[in-house]
Amino acid sequence: MDMTDPSRDDCPEEFNLTRRKLMVSGALLIGGVLLSPEISAQTLGVVAPEVSANFMEVSSLLIDHHLDAEVGARMAAAMLRIHPTIEQDIGAIIQIAKKKNAKIVEEFFADIPEGNLKDTALAIISAWYTGVVENSSNAEVFAFETALMYQPTHDVMTIPTYAISGPNGWNAEAPALSDMPTF
Predict the structure, then answer these.
(1) Helix, strand, coil % (nearest 5) of the chain?
(2) Are 46 and 115 in contact (CB under 8 A)?
(3) What is d(CA 90, CA 57) in angstroms, rounded to the nearest whole number?
């Protein structure tokens, strides 16, 4: 039997995957996901621009640091999945800050009532400082080297990593080994 024959005897027909079959099945899978009513923007990690803007506004009120808007949008989507009432909580926190004409957290944080609103404010602060939105062993990391808990000591503290050249240094070349002395 010729080796260029598409149906060689060592490859059963049920395992024969052609490019055409792969393309058709991939298109059907993607089409099914996009057309499925159960899949929402939140499931895909996307939030409405106004939700992301409100999340960044409340974050900048609660945290006096430069915050990355892209990281914030991803955090907002994740927090919305975990805390379904976060949109209302964010709106209420912003209103409390506006009533006090607050520009920094110290000017209004004491006025946030205990309970759900205070928990939401603390969860947002915690997310920006730790880089994760939930405290679990399988939590998704949103900010690693930009996590705020590393900023005060970034000039003296190395972020723990397995990368040879530092955080996010996975593609960096390893330093050359020095010549070993001969004895």
Answers:
(1) 50, 0, 50
(2) no
(3) 9
**pLDDT digit string, tens, across residues 110-140:** 999 999 999 999 999 988 888 888 887 777 7
Does residue 124 sit within a domain?
A: yes
Position 181 in a domain: no
Q: Which two tokens stand for residue 172?
A: 């960096």
Give the separation between CA 17 and CA 94, rounded to whole angstroms.
Answer: 56
The token duo for 183 is 């004895």
The total domain count for the chain is 1
CB 146 within 8 A of CB 66: no
Reply yes or no on whether the pLDDT at 87 is more than 60: yes
Q: Dihedral, CA atoms, 162, 167, 173, 179, nearest 10 degrees? A: -60
Among 78, 88, 89, 91, which Cα is nearest to 46's? 78
Structure tokens at 118: 């205070």
As given in the structure block, the two tokens for residue 124 are 């947002």
CA dihedral 126, 128, 130, 136 (to 10 degrees): 70
Neighbours of 114 (CB within 10 A): 7
This prediction has a pTM of: 0.59
- Do the domain assignments include residue 62? yes
Confidence of residue 12 (pLDDT cuts 50, 70, 90): low
Amino acid at position 20, single letter: R
